[in-house]
Amino acid sequence: MQVDNTPHRHPELWFDDGSIVIQAENTQFRVHRSILAARSPVFKDMLSFPQPLDAELVEGCPLVHLHDSAAELSVFLRAIFNSEFFMPFPVGTEFDIIVGVLRLSHKYEVEYLRRRALVHLSSGYATTLSKWDRIVHYIPTADNDRVPAMDIITWEWPRDPSYLAVLIPLVGEVGARWMLPSVFYHLSSRLAAFTPRRETLQDILNTIDDQIAFLRGHGIQSHSTFAEILTCLFEKMDDSCPSPLACAQARLFGIDAASKETGPFPCSPLEVWDETTWKAFENYHLCSVCLPSLKAKHKAAREKFWQELPGHYGLPPWEELEKLKADEIGTSWIA
């Protein structure tokens, strides 16, 4: 089937009084060069050169070809020319919109849009364990005003995990490394969804250093569920336990439940044990001595795993990543 490469106008970004036509792939955008130059120093420099006498024109406007995707250029230009299209946090948006705006605002140095896109994207990836837990149990609401700012996620994770093939290279491209521990954890816990699409995983981790770091981190993460997070179930019971037999049986229940929940690939150590499981423990008569003791050990194990998570994937510690995040997008956008 022959593909039609005839240029066509973008339906929303063709202004009759526009002074320049930009083409990406086979889509043309007629916009105002003065506004582009005011928003972007890159465009300002690009458009400052005198046009040659034989310059290609479209309806009397100079034509500029860009090597960007039409989809990403569309959302980027809409964000510039339509103030209501890409609103600041905490107004909701979409993953594809964030990606297009972030990539091109970084490339063309439109700093206010770059920061806005980074804030939106960061809302879905935690740098603290408490935020991670809120993300895991997050329920979107139509009225964000009723949700504390720290709990708001302005976009939904796409169902198809192949979106990570776009996200991970982009995060590296724009220097937003503070998201990578959470992103790699997310990838590792859902790795089975990529099998047997080996090419997709290779696209995501497109350097040998990334691949080695991920494999190391994935191995540690897979091992951590029982070796670290649930190790309390295998430890010696407290000497003051009033019902050792009942508590031992409850622990056996916990081990069995965790094994069934994780299956043969326990790659989600932070999600494998939650309040529902602890309530089930109470039904199995775990005593008043052992229950709080196990909860405390489990909490400490999760916090230890979280603190060590960046290092598992060859990344700097959280303190350094948090500083990078604050330097790039500040802290006032979130409680």
TrEMBL record:
The lineage of its organism: Eukaryota, Fungi, Dikarya, Basidiomycota, Agaricomycotina. This is BTB domain-containing protein. It comes from the Eukaryota. SMART domains: BTB. Residues 16-89 form the BTB domain. PROSITE patterns: BTB. It comes from Roridomyces roridus.
